[in-house]
Structures are given as structure tokens and as C-alpha cells.
Amino acid sequence: MTGRELPAHIEAALAGNLADSAGRPWAGRDLAGQGNPLHNFEDDDGRADAGYTTALEGLFDRRFGTAPQEEPVVSALASARMFIPIVAEVTQEAEGVRGGVADKEADMALVTLKAPDGRTALPVFSTAAGLAAWHPDARPVAAYTPRAALAAVAEKAELLVVDPGSSFTFVVRRPAVWALAQQVAWVPSYRDARLVEIVAALSGQEDSILEVRLGLGSGVPSLSADGRLALGGGAGPELRMDLRLKPGLSAGEVDALVRRFRSALQTDRGFVEGVDSLEVKLTR
Homologous superfamily of 50-182 in CATH? Predict the structure, then answer.
């Protein structure tokens, strides 16, 4: 009776793993240096990117007044290294000893989260220690944030959550995720002049809308774990829209008007791509 033949990668490991999966010997091969794309982070000490931490400090700096400073944070993320958590996911099971179930095959999978509004979010970490504290069994994979944003898009995740469970968590919203993935500059919706033009054009089609003002949504500010207010990084409504309507409208007419206007906004590609979340306030 002959024994079962071991898979090649296991046999290689038992023999000392002297060659790669294609049979090429490791001996004499230099995997270091700038020419090897697998080793962009060979000198990485696992600490947070200095540009990112400096930009985060700006969210708490009241010298900027009450204006959010999210743009510098996203700009810093564009060149910052992050750690993406990867975990083993069993894809096939086999019968083990004494009828037990044993893992036969496993894939490495990205970890995703569910945001309070039900959307999918991809967690990333500025430090290796932060990831290890959050999920000890996860493998940290170093990547520049634009690559992480591409991974989020591939996973149909609309948000990047930077450092969940830490002293401060920064939420990167869908338009900023898309901008990072495309490596283009991001302009927040509450400062986007293009959106003002779009809204003005759409509201001009409704005689009962006298004025529309766009501003900062109530969900942009956030709190650190120790209760400090940060002017940015929140996950709540991003853009506030104040609608001033013609006097004398009935409740039914107001409701129909707002639903009609929301529908027009939701079918405008420029508005949808530029706005993550919206709160509407009726004013006099």
C-alpha cells in the first residue's frame, strides 16, 4: 500500500521550503530594494504615517475656528500607508479524525463591517498595533490608502473606517473613497460649488421653492474616546439642505414637493456622486 502524495506546497514546507511554488530556488535571489513592488514597506516600523497624524490634529485645533478640516485628512491619506485586516475563511470542510469536521481549504478574506445605516464599511488601521488590538487573529496587510479604497470598491463597501475601536476613528465617506481610489482630489459636499449649481438648477423647476441653502451636515463632527470634539470624521449626515418654501402650502403639498425634489436630486448623477448623505430642513 502506497502513501498519499502530499500537495507540493506542503511537501516543500516539510523539506525546508527551499524553492517557490514554481520550483525556482530561493537561494541567491534578492527580494529587497526599490525595484521589488512587494517590498514597498520593508523598512516600515508599523507606526502611523506622520502626515496623517498631523492632519488629524487639525480636526481638534480650534485655531481653525468652527470650519471642518476633513480635506487635509483625506489628502494625507492619499499617500499614507494603512494596514488592511485579512482573516482566514474556510471554503471547504472535510471529515476529520473520529468523524469530526476539519478545515480542508481556506481563503484569505477582507474583514468588513456594517455601518449604523446598514452600509458596508472596510476597516483600515494606521498602526499594526491598532489592528492587532482590534482583531488579534487578523493578518495585517500593508497598502497605500488608494489601494485600500480600490479594495473597498471591489467589496461594494461605501465607507473606509480608519482605526475603529481606537481613541479616535475617522470615517472616510463614499465620495472621498471614490476620489482616493481614482487618486484625484476630493472636495466635501458642503464646500462644493458645483453642487450649488446643480441644486439651483433643479430647484428652479419648482415654483414653490423660494430658496435653497447648502451647508454643513450635523453628522460631520465627531467625538474622540475621551470626549474631545473633532470637526470632522463623523458618520452622520454630511450635507444640510435648507429649503424655504412658498407660504400657504398645505401639509400634503409640502410632502409631495419634498418627495419630488428629493427624487430629482437622486436621479442627478453629479449630485449622487458628490453627496454621501443628506438632511433636509424646511425654513421660513
Answer: Uncharacterised protein PF11572, DUF3234 (3.40.1350.90)
